[in-house]
Amino acid sequence: MNLQGISETILVWGAAFAFKVLGAIALWVIGRWLIQFTIGLVTKSLKKRPIEPTVIKYLSSTLSVLLNITLVIAILGYFGVQTTTFAAILASAGLAIGLAWSGLLSNFASGAFLLILRPFKVGDFINAGGVMGRVEDIGLFVTTIDTLDNIRTFVGNGRIFAENIQNFSTNPYRRVDLEAQLDHSVDVFRATQVLKQRLHAIPNVSTSPPPDVEILKFTPLGPLLAVRPYCNNTHYWQVYFDTNRAIREAFTAAGLPVPEHRLSMRNSASIEQPDRRSAAAH
């Protein structure tokens, strides 16, 4: 009788546990489906608004993590596990993980601030974290940048947020800084007029503001001109190289002489020789 009673108890307990396991599996499957459905619904709703794709991705990931944690706690509660104890364990684990992964969490927090403050967006040309290039993606932990020599670089968001950020795409134009050396014999007014006319012919050079050509300083070779056309950042390097070419072509076509280094040399031996002869005579 005792064995039969134990067997019946085990069967009843096993059947109840099996039903609970099946219920937990069903709860997990249905919960996961609801989570995916909710995330998809929220993502579609956000895409209809003027919100950055990176922000939508960040919000979807955050919502997915929170809903999955809620689902796991609900399943544990279904099995009779005290969720308050689990929450305390989860908090302790979170503290330990936070101390161990302080660098990653710093990148995560910086990524959140980058998405909220939006100093730059995907497609902008920036200089941040010691890297200059075009932003390809703003992730939770790193920002992906393609450099000028087409190297994909992943920069930690903490480093980007801790340093100065230069965004070259925000303003409608930027200045191209170049110099042109003149000879002493050149008429500065004529040279500047010739160069200004040539700069206006360069494609993508802004007319408002117009290019600047002014005397920057005086050198032993002659006046040094500051040549500063303006253009959109997209055309920066095209204008940069075309302006260098225009300086050479404009001065050559105008017949302006090329600056030359002129050195004056004296033979010290010929100067000292008479002194030696006079000393010998005495």
Polypeptide structure, described:
The chain is α+β, with helices and mostly antiparallel strands and 282 residues long. The chain is 56% helix and 17% strand.
Provide keyphrases for this structure.
single chain; five-stranded antiparallel beta sheet; 56% helix; three-stranded antiparallel beta sheet; 282 residues; rod-shaped; 10 strands; alpha+beta; 8 helices
Work out the radius of gyration.
Answer: 37 Å
Number of strands: 10
| Helical/strand content category | alpha+beta
Q: How would you state the average pLDDT, rounded?
A: 83
Span of the ends, CA to CA:
147 Å
Helix content: 55-70%
Taken in chain order, the helices and strands follow as: HHHHEEEEHEEEHEEEHH
Inertia-based shape: rod-shaped
How much beta, percentage-wise?
15-25%
Write the layout of secondary structure elements.
Blueprint: H1 2-47, H2 53-78, H3 83-100, H4 102-117, E1 125-128, E2 131-138, E3 142-147, E4 152-156, H5 157-162, E5 165-167, E6 174-175, E7 178-181, H6 188-200, E8 212-219, E9 222-228, E10 230-231, H7 236-253, H8 268-281
Antiparallel strand pairs: 1-2, 1-5, 2-3, 3-4, 6-10, 7-9, 8-9
Helix pairs in contact: 1-2, 6-7
